[in-house]
Amino acid sequence: AHMLTLRRPGPLPEGIKEGLKELVEAVIRTVDAYVEVVERLTHVAKFSFRHRDIREALRAIPKVEELEHETDVIGMRLGRLVFAAEEELGPVGVYHLSELIKVIGEIADSAARAADRLRTMLTRR
Q1: Is residue 69 part of a domain?
Q2: For residue 6, how many other CB atoms are within 10 A of its CB?
Q3: Per residue in 28-48, pLDDT tens?
Q4: How many domains does the chain have?
Q5: Contacts (Cβ under 8 Å, ≥6 apart) of 125
Q6: Is residue 11 part of a domain?
Q7: Containing domain of residue 70, as a range?
Q8: Residue 42 DSSP SS3
């Protein structure tokens, strides 16, 4: 299996290239939204535990989840493009691109899970 990865990759179809860029941008937006939640919570922890500040932080969490869902949709669409281009990419290319899409999407999934854990911690307070 390792020998298959030594093959020089060919050019990516333009639709897949654009889809990968779109996926990465969506993941970055998701992580940025999560960072915003963490910054709000850091402010709450440093300066106050006022209910209003906690509610504001909680209101920012659904945005992370919405952006993560958008990332999932983009990843699914991109996966369909990859499998549709199997003749051009070859089976190894399809496999590697599918794995790449999965790994990139898991970054957004991790941000959404972490935001959900923060919500749980705040609501148990």
Answers
A1: yes
A2: 6
A3: 999 999 999 999 888 888 877
A4: 1
A5: 49, 54
A6: no
A7: 19-124
A8: helix
